[in-house]
């Protein structure tokens, strides 16, 4: 059996169907969320890559895109759940590509505000389009009322987790 055949066999055998979710029924939601997050991110990254984008670089930019107010580096790190030093390295790359700029806060010179450039906004627009198309595809089996309920339930859970860990919602 060739390596490709073995990879194909392994891919086939490790699907959700091989999991016995009745064994740990009290944490079935945990397993669903972990698996869904992995699958969704993988699909999104596959959609982004042919367009010259990656989820790793688009993730902080997407948060900047939807933020109601400008974010500091620390705020952005907390929102996306990475340590500040990892974010600084990523922002160095994004700044080098002309997608973001860091500006000193006018009220507190110790703080660096992270802002999208015109090119960064252009990439965010493409990200929005691609992510919206994928979301529509992945939720096509749900009625509008189900999508709204799901979104509200996820919002509530996210708010509870954010409060629990001192994160911004």
Q: What summary fits the major beta sheet? A: 3 strands, antiparallel
The helix content is 55-70%
Question: Class by helix and strand content?
Answer: mainly alpha
Instruction: State the fourth-level CATH superfamily of the domain at 26-136.
Output: Winged helix-like DNA-binding domain superfamily/Winged helix DNA-binding domain
Number of strands: 3
Number of helices: 7
Distance between the first and last residues' Cα = 50 Å
CATH level-two architecture of the domain at 26-136: Orthogonal Bundle
CATH level 1 name of the domain at 26-136: Mainly Alpha
Order of strands across the main sheet: 1-3-2
| Topology-level CATH name of the domain at 26-136 | Arc Repressor Mutant, subunit A
Tell me, briefly, the overall form.
globular
- Give the H and E element order: HHHEHHEEHH
The portion of residues forming beta strands comes to 5-15%
Mean pLDDT across all amino acids = 87
Task: List the uncertain runs.
Answer: none
Give me the Rg, rounded: 19 Å
Keywords: DNA-binding, Transcription, Transcription regulation
InterPro entries: HTH_MarR-typ (IPR000835), MarR/SlyA-like (IPR039422), Tscrpt_reg_MarR-type_CS (IPR023187), WH-like_DNA-bd_sf (IPR036388), WH_DNA-bd_sf (IPR036390)
Organism: Gluconobacter thailandicus NBRC 3257
Protein name: MarR family transcriptional regulator
